[in-house]
Amino acid sequence: MKVYLCIGVMTLVTYLIRVIPLTVFHKKIENRYIRSFLYYVPYTCLTAMTFPAILYATKSMASALAGVAAAVAFAFRGKSLVTVAAAACLAVFVTELVL
Amino acid sequence: MRKQEIQQGFKDGVPIALGYFSVSFSFGIMAAGGGLSVFQAALTSLTNMTSAGQFAGLQIMVAGGALLELAVTQLIINLRYALMSLSLSQKLSKEVTMWQRLVIAFANTDEIFAVAMSHEKDLSFPYIVSLQVLPILGWTGGTACGAAAGNLLPSSVNSALSVALYGMFLAVVIPAAKKARPVLFAVILAALLSCLLYYVPLFSGITAGMSIILCTIAASAAGAVLFPIPEEGGEK
After folding, report:
1. Which of A33, A57, A89, B67 could cross-link B162 (Cys pair, CB 3.0–4.6 Å)?
2. CA–CA distance from A92 to each of A74, A78, B94, B133 (Å)?
3. Nearest CB to A85; choose among B57, B167, B183
């Protein structure tokens, strides 16, 4: 039952974030620092979730590092989300095969 | 006219749906690995439609975190959607009613938002809804398949697929950091803080969810204070 409660809480919070600016409060945020803070949030948050967790996601840290390297290289060249994700998976798979 | 909008919406949704299917497949594997049933995993994806938020939420659920921790984590991680909804509301056609806004808000994801904003006309309700349908199916279906197949796949495949979501995160972060030094600064700070909280024994009491919140707030605040983004000039 706890699982459904958790899913419910996640759904409610996420929906409220999306729906309030679209309905009640659709004025523009003027404060420069709040706008800047929100601008950085997606990047810092994704990074904090990725490191160091990705190092322990696979069977060995060596394959995880190979995955990171592949993802960074492909992302640096501006490849699409799917391509970068696939490259990371492939790098992990090959590394574990070789080692 | 209306039919055209609907066709265009579905067409624009196909690439998003394909990408979502593959990435949510790995979320499904992780959810099953964390003890969620196929139904619970798919329900999470169907009702949330977020990658980062669900992923962090799953970590907290698996760790047996408190509901408040879960709620605060979702609030911080998904706060960016408030900005996107705000921008989206500026681009909606005048005919979009209140209840239609309530529907549109549900699946305003990063990718759907990006595609919607690049649509050349004002956004009609039929267009947005048809744009959202396939990605919702792809995200939910991929999760269900991942959760169901996770146990059947060889462990080497599971191990490889478990970095898919992180790969997608990096695909979002790296190009932005390459383009703007302040973003590079903020994400390096976030990574360092996250590692600090993870490895230093003093902070071992800090849960995964709390760590994400603290790192996100600290690094974003540092970025905002040191490198505030330029004021928008000349726009309405």
Report:
1. A57
2. 14, 20, 49, 33
3. B167
